[in-house]
Specification:
This protein is of the alpha+beta class and about 260 residues long. It has 2 domains: about 120 residues, Yope Regulator, Chain: A (2-Layer Sandwich), CATH 3.30.1460; about 130 residues, Trna Endonuclease, Chain: A, domain 1 (3-Layer(aba) Sandwich), CATH 3.40.1350. The protein contains 8 helices and 11 strands. The strands form 2 sheets. A 6-stranded antiparallel beta sheet has the order 1-2-3-4-6-5. A hairpin with a 4-residue loop joins strand 1 and strand 2. The radius of gyration is 25 Å and the shape is elongated. The N and C termini lie far apart (about 70 Å).
């Protein structure tokens, strides 16, 4: 099939603004009008591979997402589900970060259409609403804690069964096996910080022996008075997960030995 025929298929199936430019032997850059949120165009290459034509982003899509997101957060939680669903829906292959799609039976137009849809769907992880982002932060934090703390030392969604059988004052985690257990809270916003502060104050009234850790999604986005009140009752706080992963991991390691 000639280059002109392939380009014609692209234009008919996708849009008239698609064009091809040669970049060597049996390799072409595919230019489209489609963009990421920040205005960067999708990076797509059509190349000959093992006797067949393949569309590839050559790793650009994931690289572009990591401008705003931690690479590790793309591999778990809500974001990972969005990516996995997009790859599955459009029969795209993820080759350790490179997205590819073989062209079946010289159906170049259909293949390009599907490939573009997959990339745009994957990029939807940057369009999560604020509420969805917060839920993702909690998922990310829970996965992080579960990875760094041995399962036999960890209780998720803990509450005190004696004083609080209805679980009105929960903690995201209780880490056991130390002289004083460590109660851990994910703090995505004002309401969660207030609730955690109230819970810790109640534990003090009950005379419970414990230590406490709070990790904010972004402390700068929380009301100053709310932060100030929480700092009076939390033993340790970190202003964000993203910027303090190593420090939080060290804190856990030291706490487990105390």
């Amino acid at each position: 099939m000639t280059l002109e025929t392939i380009e014609r298929q692209f234009k008919q199936r996708v849009c008239e603004k698609v064009r091809l430019a040669g970049e060597g032997l049996e390799r072409f850059r595919v230019f489209t009008p489609f963009q990421f949120e920040d205005g960067d165009h999708l990076a797509i290459v059509l190349r000959r591979e093992g006797g067949r034509w393949v569309l590839s982003d050559e790793g650009h899509t994931y690289m572009h997402l990591t401008y705003d997101l931690d690479e590790r957060d793309l591999l778990k939680g809500t974001r990972a589900k969005i990516i996995t669903n997009a790859i599955s829906a459009f029969f795209v292959e993820d080759r350790e970060g490179e997205l590819t799609l073989p062209v079946p039976d010289e159906q170049f137009g259909d293949a390009l259409y599907s490939f573009i849809q997959a990339i745009l769907r994957i990029s939807d992880v940057t369009f999560l609403s604020r509420e969805r982002v917060r839920s993702t932060f909690v998922e990310d934090f829970r996965a992080f804690v579960a990875e760094k703390v041995p399962a036999n030392r960890l209780t998720m969604d803990w509450h005190d069964p004696l004083h609080d059988p209805e679980a009105k004052y929960p903690a995201d985690f209780k880490i056991n096996g130390m002289a004083k257990p460590l109660l851990v809270y994910a703090l995505p916003g004002d309401d969660r910080v207030r609730d955690a502060t109230i819970s810790l104050l109640q534990f003090e009234r009950w005379g419970l022996s414990f230590r406490s850790l709070g990790v904010f999604e972004d402390q700068e986005q929380v009301n100053r008075k709310v932060v100030a009140r929480s700092s009076d009752v939390f033993e340790k706080q970190f202003s964000s997960l993203a910027a303090n992963r190593d420090r939080i991991e060290r804190y856990f390691a030291e706490s487990l030995l105390s």
